[in-house]
Amino acid sequence: MSERIDGRKNDELRPIKIKLGVVKSADGSCYLEWGKNTVVATVHGPRPIFPKHLADAEKSVIDYRYRMAPFSVSDRKSPVPAKRDKEISLVSGNALESVILIEKFPNTVIDIDAMILSADAGTRVAALTAATLACADAGLPMRGLVSAVSAGRANGNHILDLTKEEEDIDDAVDTAIAVLMPQKEIVLLQMDGFIEKDEWKKIIGMGIAGAEKIYDLQKKALLEKYPVEGDINE
Amino acid sequence: MSETLKIVNSENVLAKIKEGERLDGRTLNDYRNIEIKVNNIKSADGSSWVKLGNTEVVCGIKFVIGVPYPDSPDEGNMSFNLELTGLSSPEFNTGPPQIDALEYGRVADRAIRHADAIDFKELAIVPGEKVFTMFIDCYAINADGNLIDATEIAALVAIMNAKIPKLDENNVIIYGEYDKKINLKTFPLSFTFEKIEDKIVLDATEIEEYTSSTRFSLGVYKNNILSCHKSKGGIFTADEINYMIDIATSKYDEFAKVIKNAIKE
Questions:
Q1: Taking an 8 Å Cβ-Cβ cutoff, which residues of chain A contact chain B?
Q2: Taking the model in full, what pTM does it have?
Q3: Between chains, do B245 and A201 touch, taking CB under 8 Å as contact?
Q4: Domain spans of chain A?
Q5: A183: which chain B residues are within 8 Å (Cβ-Cβ)?
Q6: Which superfamily does A16-225 belong to?
C-alpha cells in the first residue's frame, strides 16, 4: 500500500467548494472548485427552441455543452469543441434527461453550459455535479440530484477522485460515475483502461459510495442558499 | 422502417419481452448470425465487411505518413472514424457528421485502443519525426441496430488483416507494395446491451433499440474490462451493471471463436 501523491486517503475526495447563483443573468448557476478543477455552470430555460423543427412535442430538449477553456490545461487547447467534448456533452445531457422532469416543458429547450476554467482530471464529473446544482438553482423540477465522481486504480491501489498525476500512472484506470441520489440509480458510467472484471466491480462500488459524499456536499450548498427548517430529507 | 411500423412493432417487442422472449426468437443474450469478409476492397491497405444480422458495416484502413504526438515520439498512432450516412437508414442524414456516429465510433475506438492490442512502436518510421497514422474508416451500409459492436468487429478484423505499406529509401510509401502485417496482441470485443422494461438484451435490433430506455457498452478481453460507456437517457442499477459485466465476460470466449471462424477471404 503506497501513499497517494497528495497524501490523501484512498477514499478521500479533494477539497470541494460550491457556490450557487454566481451568474446573475442565468436562470440558475453554480461555481465549483474541486481540487485544482474549477467549473462554472449555468442553466437557461426552459425557453422556446430554435430552429423550431428541433422541438419535441412531448418533452423539453436538453442541450448540454461541456467546454474546456483554452487556458485550462498545460498546452493551449483549441476552443473548438473536440470529439471528446461533444461526447461528454452528450452523455452528461443524457444523464440529466432522466433526472429533470422534462415532460413538464414540451416544445422547449433547457440550455446547460458547463465551462471548465482549470482542469486536473475528473472534469466531466465536476461539470455534471455543478450543472445539477445549477438546474436545482434554476428551480427545475427534478427526481433528485446527480452526484458524480471518479474512481479508479493507480499504483495498484483502488482510489477515489483521481488527479491528473494519478491518471498518468501506468496501471491507471479511471471510471467516471454519476448517480441519481437518493435513489442510487446510475445515470452515467464511462471507463477506459484494462482491468479484471471483479476488481472493476469493486471500483464501481467505491464510486457509488463516493457519490454519496458528493451528494452531502451538494445538499449543504443548496441549504446555504435556500435555508429550510425541519427535516431536509423530505 | 416507417414510424407507424415502429410503433406497432415496438408493442410486439414489449409483449414478447414480458415473457422473456424476443421478436426474432433469440434468447436475451444471443448474438445474431455473423458473416465477415476481409480484404475484398483492393484499394485499401486492409478491409472488412461485417454482417451482424441485417446490420452491415464496412471498414477500410489506410496508412498515412505523419508526425508523432509529442508525448509518444517513438510511436505511430491511429485515427478512428465512423460515418452514418443516409445510405444506411432513413434515420440518418447526409451532411455534417451526426452525434450518433461520433458516439458509436468513439465507443468502438476506445475498446480497441485500451486493449493493448496494437504495438504502436511498430508504426514508427523515424522516431520523433515520421510515423504511420493508421486511418480506420468505417461506414454503415445497413443499419439494423447495434452499430457499435458491428463497427468494433469490422475495425478489429480489418486491422488484423491490414498490411503496412513498403517505403522507398526516402521513406515515401510505395503504393501497392507491402511490408508486414499488424501484429494483434489481444482480441478486444465490444458487447452492447439495451434495457427494455426491466429486461436486458444483447445485440439489439433497430426496433429493440427504438423500444429500449437505455444502453450500455463494454469493451472486453477475456476476463478484463477495457472500456465502458452508458448511453441514452434512462438508468441502470448497480446490480444490472454487474450482471452485464458477468454476461459479457462469460460470453467472450464463445464469441471470439465465432468471429474468428466467420472470417472469409
A1: 83-84, 86-87, 90-91, 94-95, 97-98, 175, 180, 183-197, 200-201, 204-205, 208
A2: 0.93
A3: yes
A4: 16-225
A5: 235
A6: GHMP Kinase, N-terminal domain (3.30.230.70)
